[in-house]
What does this fold into?
Amino acid sequence: MTAMTFARAINAGLRKSLDHDPKVVLLGEDIGTLGGVFRVTDGLQKDFGKHRVVDTPLAESAIVGAAVGLAYRGYRPVVEIQFDGFIYPAFDQIVSQVAKLHYRTRGAVKMPITIRVPFGGGIGSPEHHSESPEAYFTHTSGLRVVTVSNPQDAYTVIQQAIASDDPVLYFEPKRRYHDKGEVDEAAGLDAADPMGQARVLTDGTDVTLVAYGPLVKTALDAASAAADEGISIQVIDLRSLAPVDYDTVVASVRKTGRLVITHEAGQSGGLGAEVAASITERCFYHLEAAPVRVTGFDIPYPYSKLEMHHLPGLDRILDGVDRALGRPNSLSGLEG
Amino acid sequence: MSTDETGQGGAQAHEGAGEFQEPGLSGVPEQKLVQLITPAGERVSHPEFDLWVQDITDEQLCSLFEDMTVIRRIDVEATALQRQGELALWPPLLGQEAAQIGSGRSLRGDDFVFSSYRENGVAYCRGVDLTDLLRVWRGNASGGWDPYAINMATPQIIIGAQTLHATGYAMGIQNDGADSVAVTYFGDGATSEGDVNEAMVFAASFQAPVVFFCTNNHWAISEPVRLQSHIQLADRAAGFGIPSLRVDGNDVLAVMAATRVALDRARRGGGPTFIEAVTYRMGPHTTADDPTRYRDANELEDWAAKDPISRVAALLERKGLLTDELQDHVRNTADAVAREMRKGCTTMPDPQPMDVFKHVYSSPNSWLDRQQDHYARYLASFGDPAGAVSEEGAR
It folds into this structure.
């Protein structure tokens, strides 16, 4: 076990994949000499060369489109999109090409592409640097979408994503990049939880609280605060957003009868809606209350002085928990 | 950027090709078309380009004539199959035979093609199975063939998207230390797309072994090429630092020469080349289009006089090669190919309902597996699964 930051853990995972498979190549803006704007790829170009860690011109569609061509040629490209809000120029290449080529070619062409996306807010940045665009991609068939909440998963899941023959969007919660945690670099992928599997983090009985990425830490803090009030919360880290491991969530909700989902992305049409609908379909007779969503608002990501109002924090999550439990809450007395 | 191969010497060598020169709109000096066979079938010499086709024997010239005739026949047959309800749609290549055969026959087996949806003649050169050629257009699949079987990606419908794939593939070739080339085909309309421009930026930056083959057929559905660009398309390449060639796209030898120049440069580590093959889409954009709504019949007539097959036939005649025997052989080959294709089309088995779920992922996916399971149960609840999806329903 080694204590390392989240960013360092991804770096270590990338290094391991580059070492393990000569077909792994990294593409992105500023990822080489600079080591990435968040230093996630620090030192990799120096150690693996300019042909494997490639600084590209500034064109996101081309970065992803070139990765498609490299995948055709038998490579396993790992693409860095510098910030969440910069992914849209590559949208067509991701949804019309990366996601569909395996289907289009009836399985002949594989697209083992990993698209790394630092995402989420809370870092005081201007527009386009704090978004949570995951629902665009969870709605796109042919992609797998994952996110991680701790350095160990960051290290493991990046390797699993790269090893996957299906394309993977790997969302990195950028406000957690500097959080430290223990990472077991010796552990092999075989022993790890499968990439698509959710993880139960606390054993609770009153409410199931589903979170992912940057809000897992907030959810755990909320569970701890709730415990002080005698409320027992089962926190689930989804880890995989497409597909969602519903078996794990269903098992929890059948026990607790109450579901709260939280994410930074806006509410309408978001992943919370999908989880709420699916759990309602599968657990209707086990639910004691309507599922509750605690999410960002349906607004453009706001300027940084106000971003903490947009982002679900500990108290907003607890307010949602109160709603699920029928305890007094901010919406008490309000109908519909 | 005008290259050595297309320098002014080349332009001077065939001023008789004046009928092809278009008035410039931008004031930028324009490249003249490289032409080796005039519309009348006269072989005109060219100081640089002659070298690139001097190995083409009479026999090979006859073979190019045959290939062009065969793909025109394929095109006519597929159009007929659409009219007869056997195909849902077809994008005709009529008029573009020289551009496709001249380039397609210049490629090596280990080169890799990333094309649009109109390069059915190139696919023929790559050895595509004729049934596979129609699979997409019959609605039986989203892609007709295994790209690795003929080293050609299946048709790209998003305009220009494939140019990036070619560039990335070429970066892979570079990494592998190989001397094959990625060749991407796209039209005049595509040159306005961001992807094509980004592809040229990447190709130039990495000096990737990729050939940008722009088929300027003058029309992007109803939009004329001048809506896309006020300079010649070939001249756009200079802004990216990519050498360009502008050839008579209805001249199979000129196209072949230009393609060979570009391939050779790429193989020798000289990076990308942009080829503008100036031709004309004689037919509609697709069988669903009606070009009489937007273009002048006179224009069509002008271009009919520059037909790519007639001019090779005229050249063969001048050389005393256009024998009855050759013409019979070519006609019989074309008929046989058309018959085989028609048979493959009409006997193609329909896909099975559950095929709709196949190959979305290469590994199990809990979301899709559940939907698939539920849909199988739904279909099984009907005596006749076909009834379940009819408009009238089966309940």
